[in-house]
Amino acid sequence: MNDDAVIALTGVKKTFRDFWLRPTVNAVDGLDLTVRRGEVFGLLGPNGSGKSTTIKMILGLLAPTSGNVSLFGMSPRSVASRAKLGYLPELSYLHPFLTARETIMYYAGLCGLERSVAKTRTRELLEMVKMQDVSNRAVGGFSKGMARRVALASALVGKPELLVLDEPTSGLDPVSTKEVKTLVKALARNGMTVLITSHLLADAEDICDRVMILNHGKSVAEGRVSDLGESLEDFFLAKVGDVDDFVLADFLS
């Protein structure tokens, strides 16, 4: 593996089986993927393309049927690699009765931070995501954009070297979307590696250094956004031309 490779997948295949252990679908089929230190990498593809399965294998939540997955040169299930990882799922399930401050402090405790360090880190993150003025309000009363910012701060509390964002701007208004994208770019400038999955091609165009387009569990294109043509949407449509119209409508909405 390259010294600067944070994520490395080599010949990875994931086959799901039914009750009788008969193969039903190859969700990921012979995937090679490398994400380098300090870059923002976008994993794109229509529904059913294998994005979620790939992310779950990178997080160590699923084991590949064959091939190899590594984080920082280690197993994604190792304690050492997970200590360097931050994850924001597509749906953020926050305890509605905890305040924003209490929520981040809770995750700081899970990361094993001392209380004094956790307090300082919580204050810094609340300022970073512009939630310091509502830090003592229960998150159950927050809008989706506000709750998303608290969840993002919680993912950053352990100062991860790798941040995995699953649909980070899904359902957000334009102002919140711009704030999230600005924050991701700032994190990358400071040396953090970011892996993003997204259905919003404009977001990927704005913040990703490189992208990979998946279809039917395979990579159909990979490269720097600037090298893929004037429009990432047009390039995507050219590479994923056999997707049903209703799927494309959902993907590009």
CATH architecture of the largest domain: 3-Layer(aba) Sandwich
CATH superfamily of the largest domain: P-loop containing nucleotide triphosphate hydrolases
N-to-C series of helices and strands = EEEHEHEHHHEHEHEEHH
Instruction: Estimate percent helicity.
Output: 25-40%
Radius of gyration: 19 Å
Q: Which stretches are poorly predicted, pLDDT < 50 over at least 5 residues?
A: 243-253
Straight-line distance between termini: 38 Å
Instruction: Enter the CATH topology name of the largest domain.
Output: Rossmann fold
Helical element count? Answer: 9
SS class:
alpha/beta
What is the element layout, followed by pairings?
Elements: E1 5-17, E2 23-36, E3 40-44, H1 51-58, E4 66-71, H2 79-82, E5 85-88, H3 100-110, H4 115-128, H5 144-156, E6 162-166, H6 174-189, E7 193-198, H7 201-207, E8 210-215, E9 218-224, H8 232-239, H9 245-252
Parallel strand pairs: 3-7, 3-8, 5-6, 6-7
Antiparallel strand pairs: 1-2, 1-4, 8-9
Task: Describe the structure concisely.
The chain is built from 9 helices and 9 strands. It is α/β, with parallel strands linked by helices.
List keywords for this structure.
single chain; 253 residues; alpha/beta; Rossmann fold; 2 domains; six-stranded mixed β-sheet; three-stranded antiparallel β-sheet; 35% helix
